[in-house]
């Protein structure tokens, strides 16, 4: 019975991690005269340039940064 419980717990953990997989957005941004080229995670529902753009812009604006370009969106999972 203990093996079945462990197997069930493992299966549920795998399902949970797949459901919460996020996409990675690679972008270029600037703050004043400082430029950055980095990445951030966005929800799977925003796994396109069009859907990710407002999320990235909002996150960067809260840091006083301006999005210049989204370079690549990579699905998670």
UniProtKB/TrEMBL annotation:
Q: What is this protein called?
A: Uncharacterized protein
What keywords tag this UniProt record? Signal
Q: Which residues form the signal peptide?
A: 1-21
- Specify the superkingdom: Bacteria
- Keyword Signal, does the record have it? yes
């Amino acid at each position: 019975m203990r093996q079945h419980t462990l197997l069930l717990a493992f299966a549920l953990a795998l399902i949970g991690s797949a459901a919460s997989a996020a996409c990675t957005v690679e972008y270029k941004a600037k703050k004043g005269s400082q430029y950055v080229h980095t990445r951030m995670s966005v929800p799977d529902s925003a796994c396109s340039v069009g859907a990710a753009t407002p999320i990235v812009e909002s996150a960067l604006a809260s840091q006083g940064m301006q999005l210049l370009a989204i370079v690549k969106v990579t699905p998670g999972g």
